[in-house]
């Protein structure tokens, strides 16, 4: 098993890609912490993880709130004593056109999607540095590469920020044996994307992703197989955008 005995924090692990990632990690032997605002979905994911024979802790957490994040990390350490993997997956989305975007929407999007990964990464990095190993995987997006095909400007800008934050973290944390990478999904069939217009005619593979196909790429970066990859953004988009 590729993650035997490891401890992974998957923020927003009750949602589509997050839950698929938790299950992929658990099947490879990891114990899981799910920081979530949606406790019902997180508990449902937790039940599936424990059915696989792994431990799971759901911790009510708003990733946009530094105190909430630091408390979550402390509870993780109190429970498991180590942190091997952080997946900054929690996110929110909107379609709002830039001319109608309010200051409040802009601020909340940045707080959850961009400040959240900063706060969570900062909160785990002392532990990972002391362990001299760690994996941080951030959920970027096609929207952050192209300015959004359907996504709002604040969503797209927040995801562009996440993919740049990835590089900043990777530069500083490499010397401690910690890799930091982003995944840039195109469209994955989850709650977040359920109202997207049909874009399959633009996707060379002819279909949107299943959440498990995004999770497979995250697992690669989290595992030993991805050990020499850092500061990268991995497109997992069915070919809708080719760099
Ligand atoms: N689905 C797609 O097509 C797609 C494409 C590109 C990128 N992404 C990114 O992938 C990630 C997962 O998206 P998804 O499609 O699974 O969406 P989703 O809506 O199914 O899941 C997101 C999860 O994040 C949680 N969350 C939201 N705000 C939170 C907060 N403040 N604190 C803690 N948890 C919070 C939600 O409760 C939810 O369970 C997101 O970062 C998203 O932007 C998704």
TrEMBL record:
Does RNA-binding count among this protein's keywords? Answer: no
PANTHER family from the UniProt entry: 3-OXOACYL-[ACYL-CARRIER-PROTEIN] REDUCTASE, CHLOROPLASTIC, SHORT-CHAIN DEHYDROGENASES/REDUCTASES FAMILY MEMBER
SUPFAM superfamilies linked: NAD(P)-binding Rossmann-fold domains
Which is an annotated Pfam family here? adh_short_C2
PROSITE patterns from the xrefs? ADH_SHORT (PS00061)
Origin organism is Geodia barretti
Domain Ketoreductase residue range list? 6-186
List keywords of the entry alphabetically: Oxidoreductase
The record ties this protein, via InterPro entries, to:
KR_dom (IPR057326), NAD(P)-bd_dom_sf (IPR036291), Sc_DH/Rdtase_CS (IPR020904), SDR_fam (IPR002347)
- Pathway membership of this protein? Lipid metabolism; fatty acid biosynthesis
Coiled-coil-forming residues are none
Record protein name field: 3-oxoacyl-[acyl-carrier-protein] reductase FabG
């Amino acid at each position: 098993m590729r993650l035997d005995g490891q401890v992974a924090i998957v923020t927003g692990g009750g949602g589509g890609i997050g839950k698929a990632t938790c299950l992929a990690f658990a099947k490879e032997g990891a114990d899981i912490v799910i920081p979530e605002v949606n406790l019902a979905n997180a508990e449902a994911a937790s039940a599936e993880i424990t059915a696989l024979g792994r431990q799971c802790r759901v911790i009510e957490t708003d990733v946009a709130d530094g105190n909430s994040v630091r408390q979550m990390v402390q509870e993780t350490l109190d429970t498991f004593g180590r942190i091997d993997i952080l997946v900054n997956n929690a996110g929110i989305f909107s379609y709002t056109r830039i001319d109608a975007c309010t200051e409040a929407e802009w601020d909340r999007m940045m707080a959850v999607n961009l400040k959240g990964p900063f706060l969570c990464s900062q909160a785990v990095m002392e532990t990972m540095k002391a362990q001299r190993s760690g994996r941080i995987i951030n959920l970027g997006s096609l929207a952050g590469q192209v300015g959004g095909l359907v996504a709002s400007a604040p969503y797209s800008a927040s995801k562009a920020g996440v993919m740049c934050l990835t590089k900043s973290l990777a530069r500083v944390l490499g010397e401690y044996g910690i890799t930091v990478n982003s995944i840039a999904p195109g469209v994955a069939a989850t709650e977040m994307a359920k109202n997207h217009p049909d874009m399959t005619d633009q996707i060379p593979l002819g279909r949107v992703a299943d959440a498990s196909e995004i999770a497979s790429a995250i697992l690669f970066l989290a595992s030993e197989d991805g050990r020499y990859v850092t500061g990268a953004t991995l497109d997992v988009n069915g070919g809708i955008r080719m760099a």
